[in-house]
Write a structure and sequence with these properties.
The chain contains 1 helix and 10 strands. It is an alpha+beta fold. The protein has 2 domains: 1-59, no CATH class; 66-187, Immunoglobulin-like (Sandwich), CATH 2.60.40. The radius of gyration is 42 Å and the shape is rod-shaped.
């Protein structure tokens, strides 16, 4: 048989057809497998499933937080005049931020019952009035805390305070008088 004989041509032609058919069958089988995979059975569950598998529950917690920022370290009334008020308004501007859904309370507490010169001279804390956010002037009572605000939701709350010191008449002895005040913001 010569290379161009009819029998070899038929054989080569038949081999090409068989190869193409085999490739097509393989592609169909592959596609069928993909379809079977995509359309095959699926399973989903939460909690404990009927087949004993366990679903996954993701959780997180957020810690309660509260902050007070913006307070100055000093409020100065300057030189006092007997029987007159010396007012600084605003004396403090600050904010309280909390993520507590029940809000917070804010108070200020003096360290003692009076401004003192460190010797014998005093100016009673009851001579100091505070006006929180324009709500009116309120005096301290000795060393008792004063509640400045109560908020019932989370958020950031701005505050602006005026401070007014009513100078006694007669004035106490000459000197420099001071009192320490502590702010306390408590989440509810």
């Amino acid at each position: 048989m010569t290379p161009h004989s009819g029998g070899q041509r038929k054989e080569r032609y038949g081999m090409k057809i068989r190869t193409k058919i085999a490739s097509a069958v393989g592609a169909i089988a592959l596609a069928g497998g993909i379809v079977a995979m995509a359309g095959g059975p699926a399973f989903a569950c939460t909690g404990t499933c009927s087949n004993g598998n366990t679903g996954v529950t993701a959780s997180a917690s957020v810690a309660e937080s509260i902050s007070l920022s913006g307070l100055t370290s000093t409020v100065s009334f300057g030189a006092l005049t007997a029987g007159q008020a010396s007012t600084v308004d605003p004396a403090e501007t600050y904010s309280v931020t909390t993520n507590d859904p029940n809000g917070f309370s804010l108070s200020i507490t003096p360290a003692s019952t009076a401004f003192s010169d460190g010797l014998a001279g005093t100016i009673p804390n009851s001579d100091l009035d505070i006006n929180e956010n324009g709500a009116g002037w309120f005096p301290f009572s000795g060393s008792n805390p004063m509640t400045l605000a109560t908020e019932t939701t989370s958020g950031t709350y701005p505050f602006s305070e005026g401070w007014s010191l009513n100078a006694p008449n007669p004035l106490p002895e000459a000197g420099s008088y001071s009192e320490q005040f502590t702010y306390l913001a408590l989440a509810s």
